[in-house]
């Protein structure tokens, strides 16, 4: 089995709080399958992808109520994560606020860990695209 035989993974969620964990578990299953045929270049790449998926899902549940879809696919030298939600408002960097429980660094983390991150808005909401090393 070669790496290109790992099919893209797409999972839909209703947008409930427990879906943040479910999205992370779906990403873990995808990465486990991918690692069997194409191990990551560094162990931390797996953790970085899982952190990004968790941040994107958590932000979606908080700021874009409603269903969302997580898509994972193998790119040339990494993993392409797409999170589609119902809000047309792109993620924005927010100042770190210790008074809000340390919140405000999610989008910064996503951009810092990725090779590239971008947002495409459309009539039904937006797609957040993140390319991460593997």
Task: Give an overview in words.
This protein is α+β, with helices and mostly antiparallel strands and 134 residues long. It has a single domain, classed as 2-Layer Sandwich (Heat Shock Protein 90). The protein is 37% helix and 27% strand. It has three helices and five strands; from the N terminus they run βααββαββ. A five-stranded antiparallel sheet has the order 1-2-3-5-4, with helices on one face. It is globular. The mean pLDDT is 91.
Care to give the gist of this entry?
With 134 residues, the protein is of the alpha+beta class. It has one domain (3-133): 2-Layer Sandwich (Heat Shock Protein 90), CATH 3.30.565.
How many domains is the backbone divided into? 1
**Main sheet characteristics:** 5 strands, antiparallel
Compressed to H and E, one letter per element, the order equals EHHEEHEE
Strand order within the widest sheet? 1-2-3-5-4
From the spread of the alpha carbons, the general shape counts as globular
Give the number of DSSP strands. 5
CATH topology descriptor: Heat Shock Protein 90
**Mean model confidence by pLDDT:** 91
The total count of helices amounts to 3
Q: How would you classify the helix and strand content by structural class?
A: alpha+beta
Strand content: 25-35%
Q: Gyration radius, to the nearest Å? A: 14 Å
* CATH homologous superfamily title: Histidine kinase-like ATPase, C-terminal domain
Helix content: 25-40%
| Termini gap | 18 Å
CATH class: Alpha Beta
| CATH architecture level-2 label | 2-Layer Sandwich
Low-confidence stretches: none
